[in-house]
Structures are given as structure tokens and as C-alpha cells.
């Protein structure tokens, strides 16, 4: 899937978030009574004020980096990935991302429950920008990777959640992506398939892809990511080597009152693309 952001300015695989702010309205519209409808009046929506998911987040990720985003529920982790994937727009700030993005966030996204796994692979590949020929060349490899066997020709409505994970990751595994965005979904599969996915991710990273992973599985993060960013209430509170930031995060999870410090380091500088004429 081609990036929907500003093209140029950063090389393929680079990510830049600048003062990123995003709020979600959780108010409930209780609708109108017949009298209000006839008079053209609308009852004021009720409920709590908007929730601030991101509060001026600044983040730079260089090509080929492996970065985890951690934080307690509601910290803004998934919102960050959805902003990077182009699913959710920012209220203010700017996001720049270089190259082709492959996002594995919502297992239901882009799939048709009435189509077979094979048909969904073809459609999914097209959604990510692969040509029909490219999909056909990789189709059997994708099917083999999924390990779905004869189920690949059955409708998705017969699939378990674990089978959906296999299908979704089989597509992402064979994309020529510059940036991989993955949110928790690997936790659903069985252990053997998780290891297989990790190995495939490692191959893609070795080939130059950038990885941004959101997970509550700290062991997975330690195996997969060299750098970790800690979010708390929509703000970056630590950014540095994974072992050091996770030590601080564990301290936070234990309920300690002291702020999470870690040994935060400055983010890796992302070079800007030079004008050929300069």
C-alpha cells in the first residue's frame, strides 16, 4: 500500500512524526425526539470530553530500524500505528513516511468473509499495490506460508482467529515493503507459527525494511526490536535501547511512583532527501 503522506523529504523506510496530536470524540449522540425532529432541533450530545490519544508526539525512525512502542492501555500505541498507516488523520502536526507501507493492524480489514482464503490473498495483494502478475507469482508461496492447507479454498467465515492471522501475515510476508507496522496480532497465533513469522520479519528487516511493533509481549520485543519507545498518556516518556526502556517500563507496571527514566537516547537522525540539482 503506497504511503498517503507527503512524498519526498525522507528516504524509503524513514518515519518522522512532528508534534503529532490526535483526539477521539467518545460522546454519545442520544438522537432526537419526534418533537425535536419536527422543529429542526438537535439535542446536545452527551458524554465525556474528547480523549487525547496523542499529545504532541515527536518521533524519528531511520530506515531499517526495529522499534517497539510500549505503554499501558490507553497510552496511544495503537493510535500511533494507525496514524502511521494512514487510517487515522492527525488533528495537528505532521507525519512523513518514506516508501511502501505494510500494516498488520486489524485482521478484518480488507477481507471479505464470503470469499475464500485464496481469493482474499489475491484481493489483499492488490490492495497493497501488487500487480496481478506479482500476486500470481507469489500466490503459492503465500499459501504455503499460511499453512492453511485445504482451508485456503473455504470462505473466511469458516476461519478461526488463528487462521485469519495466518492468512493476513502470509500476504504481508511477501510484500516488498519499506515499512512494516504490526500491532499485537502475532500474539494470536500458535507458538510455532509465531516463530515462523518472527523469522520472516527478521528476513525483511535484513533486506532493509523498517519495523514498528506494538505488543504487550515483552519477550517478543526483546527478541525483535533494538529500540523501544514508551508512551504514557499520549506522550513519549522514554526512548532508547530496548533493554533499558523495558526495565523502566516494568518498574512502571509494578506501580512505582517514580517516573520511568531508562537511559533515554536521542532518536536516530533521519536524513532528508537531497534535491538532485543541489
Structural overview:
- This protein is α/β, with parallel strands linked by helices and 278 residues long.
- It has helices at 34-39, 77-84, 117-127, 132-146, 161-172, 191-206, 218-224, 242-253, and strands at residues 15-24, 51-61, 66-70, 92-97, 101-104, 179-183, 210-214, 227-232, 235-241.
- Strands 5-6-7-3-8-9 form a six-stranded mixed beta sheet, sandwiched between helices. A three-stranded antiparallel beta sheet has the order 2-1-4, with helices on one face.
- Strand 8 (227-232) and strand 9 (235-241) form a beta hairpin.
- It is globular.
- The two termini are 31 Å apart.
CATH topology name of the largest domain: Rossmann fold
Q: What is the tally of helical segments?
A: 8
The percent range for helix content is 25-40%
The whole-angstrom Rg is 21 Å
In total, the number of domains comes to 2
Q: Approximately how much beta-strand content do the residues carry?
A: 15-25%
What is the number of beta strands? 9
Short characterization:
With 278 residues, the protein is an alpha/beta fold.
List the helices and strands and how they pair.
Layout (H helix, E strand, L loop, with lengths): L14 E10 L9 H6 L11 E11 L4 E5 L6 H8 L7 E6 L3 E4 L12 H11 L4 H15 L14 H12 L6 E5 L7 H16 L3 E5 L3 H7 L2 E6 L2 E7 H12 L25
Parallel strand pairs: 3-7, 3-8, 5-6, 6-7
Antiparallel strand pairs: 1-2, 1-4, 8-9
Helix pairs in contact: 3-4, 3-5, 4-5
Amino acid at each position: 500500500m503506497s504511503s498517503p503522506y507527503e512524498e519526498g523529504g525522507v528516504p524509503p523506510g524513514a518515519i518522522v512524526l512532528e508534534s503529532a496530536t490526535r483526539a477521539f470524540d467518545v460522546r454519545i449522540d442520544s438522537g432526537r425526539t419526534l418533537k425535536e425532529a419536527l422543529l429542526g432541533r438537535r439535542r446536545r450530545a452527551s458524554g465525556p470530553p474528547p480523549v487525547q490519544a496523542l499529545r504532541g508526539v515527536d518521533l524519528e525512525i531511520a530506515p531499517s530500524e526495529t522499534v517497539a512502542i510500549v505503554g499501558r492501555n490507553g497510552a496511544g500505541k495503537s493510535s500511533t500505528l494507525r496514524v502511521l498507516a494512514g487510517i487515522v488523520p492527525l488533528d495537528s502536526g505532521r507525519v512523513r513516511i518514506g516508501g511502501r507501507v505494510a500494516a498488520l493492524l486489524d485482521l478484518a480489514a480488507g477481507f471479505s468473509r464470503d470469499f475464500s482464503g485464496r481469493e482474499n490473498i489475491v484481493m489483499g495483494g492488490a490492495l497493497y499495490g501488487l500487480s496481478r502478475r506479482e500476486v500470481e507469482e507469489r500466490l503459492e508461496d503465500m499459501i504455503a506460508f499460511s499453512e492453511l492447507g485445504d482451508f485456503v479454498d473455504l470462505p473466511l467465515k469458516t476461519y478461526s482467529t488463528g487462521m485469519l492471522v495466518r492468512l493476513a501475515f502470509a500476504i504481508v510476508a511477501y510484500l516488498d515493503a519499506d515499512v512494516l507496522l504490526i500491532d499485537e496480532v502475532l500474539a494470536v497465533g500458535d507458538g510455532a507459527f509465531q516463530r515462523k513469522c518472527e523469522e520472516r520479519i527478521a528476513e525483511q528487516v535484513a533486506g532493509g525494511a523498517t519495523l514498528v511493533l506494538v505488543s504487550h509481549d515483552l519477550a517478543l520485543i526483546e527478541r525483535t526490536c533494538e529500540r523501544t519507545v514508551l508512551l504514557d498518556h499520549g506522550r513519549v516518556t522514554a526512548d532508547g535501547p530496548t533493554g533499558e526502556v523495558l526495565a523502566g517500563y516494568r518498574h512502571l507496571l509494578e506501580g512505582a511512583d517514580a517516573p520511568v527514566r531508562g537511559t533515554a537516547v536521542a532518536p536516530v537522525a533521519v536524513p532528508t532527501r537531497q534535491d538532485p540539482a543541489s
